[in-house]
Amino acid sequence: MDDSVLEREFYMEGAVAVARKLLGKILILRSREGETSGMITETEAYAGREDAACHSYKRESPSAGHRTNVMFGPGGHAYVYLIYGMHRCFNVVANTPGLPEAVLVRALEPRGGVELMCSRRGTSKIGNLCGGPGKLCQALDITLADYGADLCGGRIFITRGEDVPDGDALATRRINVDYAGEASGYPYRFVIRESRFLSTRRYVV
DNA sequence: AAAATGATCCTT
DNA sequence: AGGATCATTTTC
């Protein structure tokens, strides 16, 4: 178990590569209430202006007040947005400035601060804490205030954790992006194959 | 200016 | 299968 914090360089390549590399890493959030954390078991890459499912699809540059602006900056920052008017999604910005890519963190295997996460989620079932993008934001208390946060030093950060060999990883199509046409079939979702802590078992090959 | 639409979750 | 709930996007 490697507790070293991922440095900027880790995030400075394409979203698909970063999404794969993030499996097995530990996402940690330090709040006043305590520290909560989990191992990343499921991610999705959103590959910038060429990817019809990506929020920065066909966007050439940042524009005043737009939610995707952080994606145009350097990797290793948080892109958090409101979804369906009530949940949040946490993304890790990937790649170098000018290439607006990100990785959605879809599920964690709970590690630290389980009691605190149960209380925030209103459940006592470990299996229902972090199995979904909205759930893990609620469990770790990731909010819109974390938009733009630097993941290389701050209240949210990611450590090296455990290496996941290729035999234990699986690429599938992404969840709930059917509107994106051909792009909805790209194998941009990555999961730890045998994990019991995924958002869904749908589309497992 | 108004209507539609989600990278979701929970309950029925 | 359907409702909650609102910022952004699309349409009029």
Describe this structure in words.
There is one protein chain. The chain has helices at 8-11, 15-22, 114-121, 133-140; strands at 2-5, 26-31, 34-46, 78-83, 87-94, 101-110, 156-161, 169-172, 189-192. Strands 1, 2, 3, 4, 5, 6, 7, 8 and 9 form a 9-stranded antiparallel beta sheet that branches. It has a single domain (2-192), classed as Roll (3-methyladenine DNA Glycosylase, Chain A), CATH 3.10.300.10. 43% of the residues are buried. β4 (78-83) and β5 form a beta hairpin. By secondary structure, it is α+β, with helices and mostly antiparallel strands. The chain binds a DNA duplex (12 and 12 nucleotides) through β4, β5 and α4.
Map the helices and strands:
Blueprint: E1 2-5, H1 8-11, H2 15-22, E2 26-31, E3 34-46, E4 78-83, E5 87-94, E6 101-110, H3 114-121, H4 133-140, E7 156-161, E8 169-172, E9 189-192
Antiparallel strand pairs: 1-7, 2-3, 2-7, 3-6, 3-9, 4-5, 5-6, 8-9
Helix pairs in contact: 3-4
This protein binds a DNA duplex (12 and 12 nucleotides) through strand 4, strand 5 and helix 4.
